[in-house]
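[job 0412] stage=fold_complex status=start
inputs:
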Amino acid sequence: MQTNQLLLLFCTVLLLLGLVAFFVGRAKAARVRASGTAMYAQPGQYAWFAVLSTAGPAVLVGAVGSLLLLLLGANIPPMYLLAASLVVAAAGLAVGVAQVKPHFHARQAIERVIRWVLTGAAMISIFTTFGILFSIISEALRFFQMHSFWDFITGTTWNPGASFLAAAGRGDGSSAEFGSVPLFAGTFMITAIALLVAVPIGLLSAIYMSEYAPQRVRTIAKPVLEVLAGIPTVVYGFFAAITVAPIIVNIAGFFGLDASYNNAVAPGIVMGIMIIPFISSLSDDVINSVPDSMRQGSLALGMTKGETIRDVVVPAALPGIISAALLGMSRALGETMIVVMAAGMRPNLTANPLEDMTTVTVRIVASLTGDQEFESAETLSAFALGLVLFVVTLTLNLVSVLMIRRFREKYRVNNL
Amino acid sequence: MSHSFDEISQQLKRRHRKSARLKWISMGALGLAGLFLVLFFADMLSKGLPAFQQAYINTEVRYTEEASRDGRLAFEEELLPLISRTVVRVIPLQLRNNPEMIGTSEQRWMLATSEVDQYLKGHRNRLSDEEKAEIDERVATGQVDLRFNKTFFGSGDSKIAENAGILSAVVGTIMTMIVTLLISFPIGVMTAIYLEEFAPDNRFTQLIEININNLAAIPSILFGLLGLAIFINFFGVPRSSPLAGGMTLALMTLPVIIIATRTALRSVPDSIRHAAFGVGCSRWQVVRDHVLPLAMPGIMTGSIIGLAQAMGETAPLIIVGMVAFIPDVSASFTQAATVMPAQIFTWSGEPEQAFVEKTAGGILVLLSVLISLNAFAVVLRKKFERRW
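[job 0412] stage=fold_complex status=done
writing structure:
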């Protein structure tokens, strides 16, 4: 039988057993109660307990069994597993109904089960992180068995070349070079351009919104800026490739410079636009929580409003502003679609942003969308790049969180 | 002395000018951000709106015996370069389904090639001068015209530009979002309930909290790597399927829903919990019967915003293979599908000029769906928000 047919059968039988458990349990509880015995819980609660004791262990057995099946290969036929879990369900039904006794705390039992279920749900987010780490690290390790870690970190040529032939058993793949320096150079170049756009505009907008703007402007401007963050990145990528890149080429041509249509400036600028709201909204919050006593002190000493903002408010808010910029930077480093669509494909170690260059994320996408064997060094290199990306963004995020915490402790604000 | 006073007041004037300058500069920065937004939308509209119209040619179609083998034979020879290649298949198919039509003929609006379409819209095209003259003549008599583009909304992807539509991507998006929501909504809400209402304040709880904040900041492409390595390679979920894509996106949406739900739960005042405990409710009864219903509008708003975010996500879906070429609409969770952003990505890589317009048209559809979702979330919040 097909897997999904088995699943359907399992669900149907379990549903039927659950219904039986509910009604039998409730009827029994109602009978006990009608006989005049005081009970610890309502009939409905006994009924729900019977349902839980029917379904819970059965689902658990089924899930663990199929996981083992996947892990160890098909040692147990799925039919046996189905039968086993249904037997467990029937046993659970019997136990659940038998537990309908005046001295049984059904409500507390349900409460305990629910607490475990909720804890289980909370564990899933931890599993996700471990899943990401595990999947990236295990594949990256396989890559580092083929190519040395040192060459990967310091090499200046990225040329997967014929590595896919080696995976297919032809050639030895020795001509392939995986030096990630040009990729990281491209990534940091584009990120730097993005930050050059986003930090001044984001910070100044935040200053305007928190220090100058009337309430009415604030209530309009904030959501409008948030729209910038809500636009899908694939749309930004199209905008960068079709509209911004030709403009950049024309401007460069006007100054007699030669620019590629896949230059780094176009994706950089558009990525900068995308992260403006990340920087402005956090900076806005931070500037708002600088205590007013500092502004009053400064104004009382005869400073103008501009000087107060420049010399008192912004320096006080600096940890928060840096933290916002770091968050924006981590966004820009991991951003994929804009660079896939607007930046180049050629690993190119250059300091000229008008040339085409590629980034880490572009390489990850390129090496996973081809038709190579999954085992080939080129495919696995994507996981090695992903590992570095994970470590870098994680570090940036942690530093950013620490800086915000420091700011919060210094000024005792709780709303950040 | 008076000289020095003058100097000071001069200096003061300079300082105030400088102060005023900061105000204008910062205002300009905000204006610049707004300007970007306006330019962006204007650009998308001007590029994408023409995609909703398509060139059609009104001509006589002769349903002859030969035409049921090769659809092109149903038309005058001089028109053939102007009529879409799709007729090769369309006319024979029509005649096979309605054999009684063979031998008749009718006047009909036929889909023109994308070259004609681009010429009428004033874009770059590869038509010869005679063909252009021919079209101009027919436009004058109303035999060639731009009409509403049914194909764009009613069919799947195609390599023939005028025949490409967004429907299969829309269906794929709906299927993927169903999977995403079915997984991330219950788990997200349960996690938030655990953290806000049940969890003791210990190391384990802090670990979960840090972890969730961290997940929210991980680049989306890494979720794609997870989906590829765990869901597809390990669990054997079919590649390119809405199931694989939806599960991957669910993990990405999870932190958004958790954070929104926690905020909503926290905004329910403690007095409600105290009252419920006071009449003897257990913890779960308090949450289920009192706190959760009151927090529901906030939870829904957050989930809709999370869903909109997931709907626009492309990078992880490319990694799990959801950039497949899907000409036919299929509503299956385990077969290859594509989603709107992936369709936009695919079209943006096509070299033909006509696909630029398709891409922008797809973007307009996606943006209008996202904007309506977000507007719906805002309305929901406005309508049900309670101040305690």
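[job 0412] summary: The two ends of chain A are 55 Å apart (CA to CA).
[job 0412] exit 0
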